[in-house]
Amino acid sequence: SQQGEEDPQALSIQEGENATMNCSYKTSINNLQWYRQNSGRGLVHLILIRSNEREKHSGRLRVTLDTSKKSSSLLITASRAADTASYFCATDTGGNEKLTFGTGTRLTIIP
Amino acid sequence: DGGITQSPKYLFRKEGQNVTLSCEQNLNHDAMYWYRQDPGQGLRLIYYSQIVNDFQKGDIAEGYSVSREKKESFPLTVTSAQKNPTAFYLCASSASVRYTFGSGTRLTVV
To answer: Sign of dihedral through CA atoms B31, B23, B100, A102?
Structure first.
């Protein structure tokens, strides 16, 4: 079952602009992660935020988590052509390490 | 270099044929996972294993089988019972909730 739903499904922006994508989930979680997937490749881990955290930064990435709304957002600042990829959120509920992935946002950066 | 290797990168299957996808990791991770990804879709869990000689069904296990005889290896067999096997298959491993993924196998039925 799909725990997360990303919004929007697709996003195109000019290079240098900021990109924001959102993830909503259905049940209580332990952690939420964001992964990137370049076309035809595997997923690469970007950032993890725990359920007791509200915001986290890593380089040009900023993730927020609102557990009351069961939602998270990923902000990529000063976008680059190399950021073109699909982005997925993934959640776990604790107890085991099984992740449930969302449907993804396809981000295109226009040079 | 530590990592996770999937092979082959591309695989073609005839109707009624079983095929096996390979997944090997040298990260010393206990847990391994198989996901299926259809075009423009998210990942759906097929099978997972948290320890050698043990594995559990995921959300879409029908038509698939796995084994976990060694910590490093978690092969996936797509059987003839899987009616719509054309997809991108991803293997992952983890020592915690952070996954490391292989580069995937694209399976096509011909």
So the answer is: negative
